[in-house]
Amino acid sequence: xxxxxxxxxxxxxxxxxxxxxxxxxxxxxxxxxxxxxxxxxxxxxxxxxxxxxxxxxxxxxxxxxxxxxxxxxxxxxxxxxxxxxxxxxxxxxxxxxxxxxxxxxxxxxxxxxxxxxxxxxxxxxxxxxxxxxxxxxxxxxxxxxxxxxx
Length: 150
Description:
Layout: E1 6-10, H1 18-35, E2 38-42, H2 46-52, E3 55-60, E4 63-69, H3 70-75, H4 80-87, H5 106-109, H6 127-131, E5 136-138, E6 144-146
Parallel strand pairs: 1-2
Antiparallel strand pairs: 3-4, 4-6, 5-6
């Protein structure tokens, strides 16, 4: 298709050499600017997501936990999972201290939780979280945070 309105890119740079990665991302940006092409950019690579995205949805176990303007979410996360996700990125000059998490059979059971899927790993979890899926809390900057305590 010579000028698509939308391109779905699922992990488009995950197996690409680092020297070519930004070439592809910059190609996406030029298509976006030149032809007003929209992208659904699915990735685990938060650096390229930050670079290319206007709006971002952070997901955990198939559920959106935070949604809104990419720069504000990735620089000032509000959901505990988004914070944990960003803290898992190693930085030069900062020792990465990893807390040991028990990953029992709860890993598969989390998909079936009726409440918040992040309940077992959340430092703020209460009984309410296990029983009831949190509704979106709209923040002043327009983002939506799916947490009872946002």
